[in-house]
């Protein structure tokens, strides 16, 4: 009898021991609003404050119940994560005069405490977002009270009992750090960057070529990784692209391409929506690296993309246990309406990249296959991509006409502004606008039309 009880446990342990893959969580853009439901400072002007749900509203940033639920959702869907990446933007979108350094730090402290409570033994890699500063976006390339305070708040994660003093040093200096995550046949390194230093809205670093000397340091780290045969995961809050100043964007992207051989993946948040990007080699011929952009926990609509609402999201990245190469990711979400109406706070899988798009893994070559498939007229995968981009709100169809589709595809394959603009100009929508629009009703009909929008 006792053996019967033990069998499932033994089977679970054996599966764990012989599993070829492992995973980590990526949680970003929580934007926790401590005033939700009272002053509701983060809510949009048109929000109906009498109808705010307990777990959040698409008109506001996250209440505590949602932040807590997201962290608990990671626990329930995989408490055995190898590590967690907490990719920043913990502070709400509110008027600047309602915030202060103290309020910024208090909000981050509350989330830090909750992560420690739920994951007391899991390594956490925290990042700075453009909202994790006062005034917002103005993160400097030099030491200041916020970097100092966060270095102290996070020192057990960053310094691991005194094993990584240089991590604290670079974090205090510029909000960035690197450390070895695990030593297998080769060492696996985390490169955690403060890309807010390159943000167009950051006046504190405007006119400085290499704020915080992060570029020089980044190159040193990547060069060292090449010499030492290490492999590197790159974590950023703001992804390179149109949010970066153009020169710094080019410099960042050149570094990624130059050292692509050692880079396992680039992981970002900030956009609040779900997408991916592909880096090509200098000849723009071969894909060399993939960047993955995770959607936000905060369901607030309308700040980074015109008023398209979405559900709260967290992401699980699955990697090869022995090589640490990225295999797939699973996007989890909370159906906000159900949480509010029925207290159902189950975080469910929305989709897995490889299963949805029918590819073996998420290496750069497979990302290209998926992206190129999108180009087909009325491609069903593109329809799935666009729905998932907005985390399946189930509040009606979000249209994406030919111009919109072109912009999406050009953004995936072009991280440089000039190349992106050229791509959009080159793609030809003439005569196809509207007809290229996908929706569930017309999908079957347009699928039979073997017309290609792109060349
Ligand atoms: Zn954000
Ligand atoms: Zn951000």
Structure summarized in a few sentences:
By secondary structure, this protein is of the alpha/beta class.
Question: In words, what does this structure look like?
Answer:
With 455 residues, this protein is α/β, with parallel strands linked by helices. It has a single domain (22-362), classed as Metallo-dependent phosphatases (Purple Acid Phosphatase, chain A, domain 2, 4-Layer Sandwich), CATH 3.60.21. Helix content is 36%, strand content 17%. Strands 3-2-1-10-11-12 form a 6-stranded mixed β-sheet. A 6-stranded mixed β-sheet has the order 4-5-6-7-9-8. Helix 2 (64-76) packs parallel to helix 3, helix 3 packs parallel to helix 4 and helix 4 runs antiparallel to helix 6. The radius of gyration is 22 Å and the shape is globular. One zinc ion binds at residues 29, 31, 89, 129, 131, 270, 272, 296. One zinc ion (ZN) binds next to loops.
């Amino acid at each position: 009898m006792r053996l019967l009880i033990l069998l499932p446990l033994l089977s679970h342990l054996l599966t764990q021991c012989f599993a070829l893959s492992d995973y980590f969580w990526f949680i970003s853009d929580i934007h926790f609003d401590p005033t939700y439901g009272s002053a509701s400072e983060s809510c949009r002007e048109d929000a109906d404050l009498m109808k705010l749900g307990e777990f959040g509203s698409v008109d506001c940033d996250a209440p505590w119940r949602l932040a807590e639920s997201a962290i608990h959702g990671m626990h329930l869907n995989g408490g055995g994560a190898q590590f967690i990446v907490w990719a920043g933007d913990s502070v709400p979108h509110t008027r600047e005069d309602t915030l202060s350094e103290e309020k910024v730090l208090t909000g981050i402290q509350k989330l830090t405490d909750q992560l420690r409570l739920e994951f007391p033994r899991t390594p956490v890699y925290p990042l700075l977002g453009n909202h994790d500063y006062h005034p917002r976006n103005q993160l400097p390339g030099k030491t200041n009270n916020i970097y100092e305070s966060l270095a102290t708040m996070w020192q057990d994660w960053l310094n691991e009992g005194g094993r990584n003093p240089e991590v604290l040093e670079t974090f205090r200096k510029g909000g960035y750090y690197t450390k070895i995550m695990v030593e297998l046949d080769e060492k696996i390194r985390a490169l955690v960057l403060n890309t807010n230093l390159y943000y167009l809205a950051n006046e504190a670093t405007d006119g400085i070529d290499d704020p915080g000397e992060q570029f020089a340091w980044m190159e040193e780290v990547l060069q060292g990784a090449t010499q030492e045969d290490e492999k590197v995961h790159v974590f950023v809050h703001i992804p390179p692209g149109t949010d970066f100043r153009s020169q710094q964007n080019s410099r960042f992207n050149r570094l990624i391409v130059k050292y692509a051989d050692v880079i396992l993946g680039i992981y970002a948040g900030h956009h609040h929506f779900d997408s991916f990007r592909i880096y090509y080699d200098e000849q723009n011929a071969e894909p060399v690296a993939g960047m993955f952009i995770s959607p936000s926990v905060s369901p607030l609509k309308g700040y980074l993309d015109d008023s398209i609402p979405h559900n709260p999201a967290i992401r699980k990245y699955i990697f090869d246990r022995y090589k640490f190469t990225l295999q797939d990711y699973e996007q989890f979400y909370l159906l906000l309406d159900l949480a509010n109406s029925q207290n159902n706070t189950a975080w469910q899988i929305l989709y897995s990249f490889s299963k949805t798009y029918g590819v073996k893994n998420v290496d750069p070559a497979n990302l290209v296959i998926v992206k190129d498939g999108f180009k087909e007229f009325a491609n069903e995968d593109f329809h799935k991509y666009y729905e998932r981009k907005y985390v399946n709100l189930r509040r009606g169809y979000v249209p994406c006409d030919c111009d919109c589709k072109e912009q999406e595809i050009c953004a995936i394959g072009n991280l440089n502004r000039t190349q992106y603009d050229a791509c959009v100009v080159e793609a030809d929508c003439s005569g196809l606008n509207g007809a290229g629009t996908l929706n569930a009703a017309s999908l079957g009909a347009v699928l039979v039309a073997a017309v290609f929008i792109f060349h």
